[in-house]
Design goal:
Radius of gyration: 20 Å
Largest sheet: none
CATH architecture of the largest domain: Orthogonal Bundle
CATH superfamily of the largest domain: Tetracycline Repressor, domain 2
CATH class of the largest domain: Mainly Alpha
Structural class: mainly alpha
CATH topology of the largest domain: Tetracycline Repressor, domain 2
Length: 197
């Protein structure tokens, strides 16, 4: 019999905590059952196995990250918005490394909830990029550049990949300033092309 009060939400929330503590790849159903005080077969009344559990973590994490980024960027434009978004991204990822790892997986085709959660994150970035007059393929290029830069830095930081005796905060600020400068240059270049046409 399942432990009283055990729900799918409670199972997923506990799994998120474990993932943040030991890493998403180290999350096991046995550890989850132990933390919840139930036998492993009892979990299957609430989840359909590890794949379903990781998918649930991913959807919830993407929704939360999208909300965090949206709150950070609201009322800001251009460089201020990029810096606020980048700071919020890094803070959330460092505080929730297991959940953050779940956000990097693309939705499975046909998974409406996962796609909506993923799209919400991208929409925040695209809204910020609209201040640089980037649209279409150029906006996608910029979105991928921002994501790659921030993800690369955060992944190295959370995996203790920075060993040189220079402030990590300083290096992150340099990275974000470089992104802001590149976006401003892209905007200037696009403006020149618009005036020539």
């Amino acid at each position: 019999m399942a432990r009283a009060g055990l729900t799918e939400d409670r199972v997923v929330i506990e799994a998120e905590h474990i993932a943040d503590e030991v890493g998403l790849s180290q999350l096991t159903l046995a550890a989850l059952a132990g933390n919840l005080g139930v036998r492993q077969p009892s979990l299957y009344k609430h989840i359909d196995g590890m794949d379903a559990l990781q998918r649930a973590i991913a959807v919830r994490a993407k929704r939360e990250l999208g909300e965090v980024l949206g709150r950070a960027a609201v009322g800001r434009a251009r460089g201020d918005a990029i810096r606020a978004l980048a700071d919020a991204y890094r803070t959330w990822a460092v505080e929730h490394p297991g959940r953050y790892a779940a956000t990097t997986r693309a939705p499975i085709p046909g998974d409406v909830d996962d796609k909506a959660a993923s799209d919400a994150v991208v929409t925040v970035v695209l809204d910020v990029l609209s201040g640089y007059h980037l649209t279409g393929d150029s906006a996608i290029d910029a979105t991928r550049t921002i994501r790659s830069a921030l993800h690369g830095f955060v992944s190295l930081e959370t995996n203790h990949g920075f060993g040189l005796p220079v402030s990590i905060d300083r290096s992150y600020e340099f990275l974000v300033d470089s992104l802001v400068a590149a976006l401003a240059a892209a905007d200037t270049s696009a403006a020149g092309a618009r005036h020539r046409s």
